[in-house]
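Researcher: Before we compare anything, I want clean individual predictions. No alignment, no superposition, just each chain on its own. First chain goes here; please echo the sequence and then give the C-alpha cells.
Model: Echoing the first chain and its structure:
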Amino acid sequence: MVIVSRCGLGLRGTGCSSSTTWRTIDDWTTPSGIGNVAIIAHGMVVTPQNTVFTAAYHNRGTGPQKKWIVRRGTGGGSQWATVDEFTYSTSVAGAEAYNVWTDSLGRIIAQGAGFDASDVSRWVTRLSSDKGDSWSTLDDYAYVNGYEAFAAFNQTGPAVDRNGAWYIVGTGSDATARHWLVRKSTDQGASWSVVLDYQYAPGQPSSPRTIYVDSNQDLYAGGQAADASGVGHWVVLRSSDFGASWAVVDDFQLAPSQTAQVKGLIVLEGRILLVTGGAADAGGVNRWVTRRSSDRGATWETVDLISSTASNAQTEILEDAQRYLYIGGYIGLSPNRNPTLRRSNDRGVTWSTVDELTGDSYALSAMRAVARGPDNALYTVSQTVEAGGRNHTIVRKRDCW
C-alpha cells in the first residue's frame, strides 16, 4: 500500500509547458454574515486524479463556533467547493480539521478534533469513499475519557510499512499532562492500537507532529516533549521493529532552557534524515531550523537557521520528481508575518526562499502545507489574516520549475 502524500518517487522531470510562476487558485474567506472570524488552514493532499483537498476550520460566531471544513478543488484546483462541514456536537467548540490524505483504495481521510458536550476534544477521523461527495466518522478516540485527545496538525498521511500497516501520531491527555501517541492500524483504519505512549519527563506534556517510514522500514516520529522543568525539547524517536520499541535519536534546543519543536521530517536514500521545525534563541525569539543527519541520526548538523527575524517552519518536508525538497512556514514579526516556501536543490545541505507572500493582505500568516500533484505541480496552502482582520485560506500552485 502507498499513501500518495508521503511518497517521494525520485524521478527526474520531463519538462513543462505550463506556468512556471506561482498563482492563487483558491482564496476562501470568511463566510458572509458571520464577521471576521478565524479561518485556520492546516492540511492538503493532491490525489492521483489531480483533485486537491484542503483541511481547515473556522469560527462561525454562533452555535458550535468551530466548524471542521474540507474543501475540494477538481481539475488541479480549477473548481472549488466545500465538501465536508462537520461540528461533532452542539457544544460551543464544535470541530477542527487538521489534516487530509488519500489511501491506495482512493478514499479521502481527514483527521482532527471533535469537541463533546463538555467541550473536551476527541481524536476524530472522517472518511469519504466517493471522492469527497459524502463523509462518515471512521474513528472517534479518547485516550482517557473526559480529557483531550486530537490528531497531529499538518500530517500528510500515515507512515505505511511493507505489510500495509498504518501509523499515525497525535496527542492524548490524562489528569496530569499530554502524552505523545503513535497509533497503528493493520486493517486500513477499521481498528487501532497504541504502540507508543511517550513522555520525556513523567507528568510533563509531550506532543508529536510527524511520522515517517523509510526504505529500511525504520519508523521516525518527531515533535515536542517537555523536560522536568516544563521546557519543550525538539525530539525525534526511531523504531526499527514496527513500533514495538523506540529510541531517541535527536534531542535538540537552540538555546538552553528555551523551547523547540519538530514540525516535519523525511528520510532520503534510507540514511539521510532531515528534520525541520522551530526553536527559540537565547532571547526567546522563535527561529526556523532544519537539521540534517547523514548517518540515520547518529550525528547531526544544523543546515538552515533563519536568524534575521522571527520565523518558524510549519509543514512536512516534500520531495518532488526532480528530487528538490520543500518546506513551508513563515518569516517575520506580526503584523508582517509572511507565508514562506524554502527549497533545497542539494538533498538538504543548503536552502533558499522560492515563494513569499508579503503585504497587508498577509499579516499574521503562515504556510501550513505543501503538496505535489501527479503531474509534479506544487501546491501550498496558507492561513492568512488581513491587516483589517479578515481571514483567508490561500491555495497557490506552480506547474513546474
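Researcher: Okay. Second chain, same rules.
Model: Second chain and its structure:
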Amino acid sequence: MSKNWPPRPRSTDAARPATAAAGRKSARPPANRAAPGRAIDTRTEDGAKRRDRPSPDRKPLGRPPAGRQPTGRPNAERPSGERQLHERLAPERARGRERSASQQKPYKRPEPERERPARPPRPTSHDGRVQLYGVHAVTAALANLAREIVTLRLSENNKERFAAACAAREVTPQIVTGQELDRLLPRDAVHQGVMLETRLLEVIDISELAPERLPAGRRALVVVLDQVTDPHNAGAILRSAAAFGASALVMTSRHSPPLDGVLAKAASGGLEGVPVLTVTNLARALEQLADLGYFRIGLEGKGTTDLGAVDVSGPLALVLGAESIGMRRLTFEHCDQICRIATTGGIASLNVSNAAAIALHNLRFRQSLADA
C-alpha cells in the first residue's frame, strides 16, 4: 500500500494548543474560510464572483492506488438480468437466423431496362387530321355524313357494336389491341377500345348564323366562349349546347382547345351536332352578331341583372369568359347586358360549364314558353 494513502487529515483547532484555540473561539472566521456546516462566501467586497474553493473541513477525494481493488462485488459475481435474458434467447435467435438464411432467395442479377418504343407523332389539326376516341364520340362522328373517315381502329369487343355503322359508311375497321391504341393515343386517353382518324369539319362563316338562314322552327341561340382553354369545360359546354338546341358555338382561334379527342369525348357527340366557329377577333365577331340582330348577354358573377329578367323574344348570344379572369375588357364592352345567375347557397360562383348549362336551360325554356 502506498505511503500517501490514506491521506492525512489536516490540522484543526482541536489539535492546536488550547490557549491559541481559546483566543480565537469568539473571533469571526476569515473571509476565505467557512465555519463548519456553512457555505463559503465566494463573493468579494466589490460583488465580483470569486473562484470556488473547497471547504477546509471536507476531506479531499482521492483515488485508490493502482494495487488496491475497489470495494464491492466484482462484475463477474453480480447477477445480471440482461445477461440471463441474452443467454436464454441466444438459441432462439440462432435458429431464426438459420431459418431466414434457408428461406432467402438466391441473388438474381436485375435485367437491364428495356427501352420503350418511341410513340409516333400525334396527328394534329395543322395537317387537317384529328384523332377521336370514345364510344359516343366515334359513333356520332360515323353518323355525321360531313365527316371524312380516314382510319377506324376497333378492339375485338367493339367489332359487333360498330358493325352497322361501318356498313352504313362502307368502312372496314382495323382490329387492334388495347395496347396498340395506348401507343397511338395520349397516356391519359380513355379510348374504350375505339379510335377514329378523321379530318376536320368545314368551317362555316358567321354570316350563316343569320336567323333567316337557320332551319325552320329553330330559334337563334349562339354560345360565345372568351378564351376558355380547358378542353373538358369546352366539351361540356358543347354537350349542353347540343342538348338545348344551340345554333352554334363561337371560340377564339388562339387560347382555345383543339377540336380533337379530349374535347370530343367530353362533348359526347355534341361536336357533330353544333357547328363550331373559330375567330381571330372576338370583339369583331360580337359586332357582326349584333349586326345580324343578336342580343348579346354577358354572364358574370358580379352582374347586376338576373338572367331571368332578360327579354328572350329575339335572337340571343350567350357570352361566357374563362373561370380565372372572366370576360376580357373588350368582350365585356361589346355585351348589351351583363347578367348573373341567382344563387341562394353559400357558394356564389359556378363552374363555367355548369353556368352555361343552367343559362342555356333558362333561356331555351323561356323561349319555348314565348313560342307557345
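Researcher: What stands out in the second chain?
Model: The longest strand covers residues 149-154. Additionally, The first helix runs from residue 18 to 23.
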